[in-house]
Amino acid sequence: MPRGNAAQSKVHYKGKEEDFIVMVDDIQAVQDWRKDKSIPLAQVVSGWKVFVTHKHGAQGVLDAASNQTLENEFGTHKDEEVVKVILEKGELQETQTHERTGSTNDSIGPRTAH
Fold it and tell me: Measured between alpha carbons, how far is 8 from 97 in angstroms, rounded to an integer?
């Protein structure tokens, strides 16, 4: 997973009951995989975790998807099969994270009790 102000890529799949997210290494890797399924999924995904956003779209709070939630939506809870469906049918998204910042107002001076 990227840190600092590196781009973060993910695939968002809008299911019947939940919205699902899979983190990927980059958008190009997913596009290449969609054209050539012989590319190993391990070179595409950034971890085998499937997240749900509780119907808050791609920007909601990410929680791990339970086996029951995956079973209800995809008919299986096997990570590889679920990830394949999300990568095939999901929407690619790339976001730029905010730059890490230090002190925001150095003109205040030290904040110590007098």
Answer: 7
69: which DSSP letter? H
Rounded distance, CA 67 to CA 113, Å? 52
The gap between the terminal CA atoms of the chain, to the nearest Å, is 43
Please give the angle made by the CA atoms of 37, 96 and 21, to the nearest 5 degrees: 45
List Cα–Cα distances, 11 to 43, 65, 90, in angstroms.
Answer: 15, 15, 6
Q: Is the pTM for the entire model greater than 0.85?
A: no
Do you know the residue count of the chain?
A: 114
More confident of the two residues 8 and 22: 22
Taking the C-alpha atoms of 5, 11, 12 and 18 in order, what is their torsion angle to the nearest 10 degrees?
A: -110
DSSP summary character for residue 55 = T
Specify whether the CB–CB gap between 63 and 78 falls below 8 A. Answer: no
Segment 74-95 shows an average pLDDT of: 91
